[in-house]
Design goal:
The chain is of the alpha/beta class. It contains eight helices and seven strands, in the order αβαβαβαββααβαβα.
Length: 246
């Protein structure tokens, strides 16, 4: 059970307290969003189950986008494994270990920025805790949200966990190289489920093994960066604690 929000358990956290926590999180998220806008940084909330391939999806643009500065706030309940893997791929990464909490929140993201030289990045990924429930609830201050869904998770996840897909701007269907080994799996069933849950359904088939879909994923990121307004505060060194905390 999540120590922060109780995951809606009324015996753990009251509805009133949960709403208060969400309101406080939203204030911090707005503060984070102001930081990112000030420096012209594209912030992406990358969500998905454990083992869905989130880290591999970060390694691909780092290899392909020469001169494009990518950083990440990685981590999970424990270990720095993902952070070490990203740094080995040349991606500056700070790790957020949440203990028993099942999601990132805006405060954790804000605090983690102190451990990363983020203001001169082009794109910052927040690799969220691996699950399809809690991360959907919390705004982190990101400009876009992406869900990694692996083919090994089955076709019905968008219907079983609709909130996270309802808030997603893009779904990356990962590990598509395994489709020949999953008889009966229907990508069109996933597309139909997303049509019921996502306001603007967008699915890209991906494989870190074959490279399928990675160019589309990278082009989507480039398009989102192109949509950003000009940075309001320049591109020089800056720490988030120079501002009033929302």
């Amino acid at each position: 059970m999540c120590d922060t929000c109780g995951c809606g358990d009324p015996e753990k956290v009251s509805v009133e307290l949960h709403e208060s926590l969400l309101a406080g999180n939203d204030r911090q998220a707005r503060h984070n969003r102001e930081h990112f806008a000030e420096r012209g940084v594209l912030a992406i909330n990358l969500m998905g189950s454990p083992g869905s391939g989130k880290t591999a999806l970060l390694e691909a643009p780092a290899r392909a986008l020469a001169g494009h500065r990518i950083g990440a706030l990685s981590g999970d309940l424990a270990t720095d494994n993902d952070g070490a893997r990203l740094r080995a791929a040349g991606i500056p990464a700070a790790t957020i270990t949440t203990g028993s909490a099942c999601h990132r929140d805006a405060r954790l993201v804000h605090e983690a920025l102190h451990g990363l030289d983020w203001p001169d990045l082009d794109t910052l990924f927040v690799e969220n805790v691996g699950n399809l429930v809690c991360p959907a609830i919390y705004d982190l201050g990101q400009q876009a949200s992406v869900v990694a869904l692996s083919v090994t998770e089955g076709e019905d996840k968008p219907l079983k966990y609709p909130v996270i897909f309802r808030k997603a701007d893009l779904v990356l269907l990962t590990k598509c190289d395994l489709l020949p080994h999953l008889p009966g799996y229907r990508v069109e069933a996933v597309e139909a489920a997303l049509a019921e849950t996502m306001p603007a359904p967008r699915l890209v088939r991906c494989s870190a093994v074959t490279g399928e879909g990675l160019a589309t994923w990278i082009a989507w990121l480039a398009a989102r960066r192109a949509e950003l307004p000009p940075a309001t505060g320049g591109r020089h060194h800056h720490h988030p604690d120079h501002h009033h905390h929302g």
